[in-house]
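Narrative of activities, Objective 1.

The group set out to show that a structural description can be obtained from nothing but a protein's sequence at a throughput compatible with the screening campaign. Below is one input-output pair from the validation batch, recorded exactly as produced.
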Amino acid sequence: MPLLLDTGVLYALADADDDWHRRSRAYLATNRDVLLIPVTVVPEVCYLLRSRLGAVAESRFVQSVGDEELSLEPVMPRDFKRCTELLAKYPDIGFVDASVVAVAERLKLRTIATTDHRHFGSLRPAHLESFELVP
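Output recorded for this entry:
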């Protein structure tokens, strides 16, 4: 089963000074699942990498997607509908997090790799009681 990654984990992997860097690297080093990211996560990761770490960090991330180290998952029209519902119910999460949840629900995924345990921990997905949040 694929492991769905949120923006925070992807950023933490690139920033050695990030509080989640070691945890994220250690967890993913032992994980053999396909690493899946909703396409909506890409611009957010790129923005954070470029604005905080520079163009080289952004370029490395883009290359990892191009080299298929990370698999992209499209956001379907039905996911956008679900995002609208999630944003109405959980206005603090924002569109990108809502899209991660919508993709996880559509694919029936139980686990999300995220540094945002506060937001994702408060969500109640449609297909299970709660997500398993890692690392």
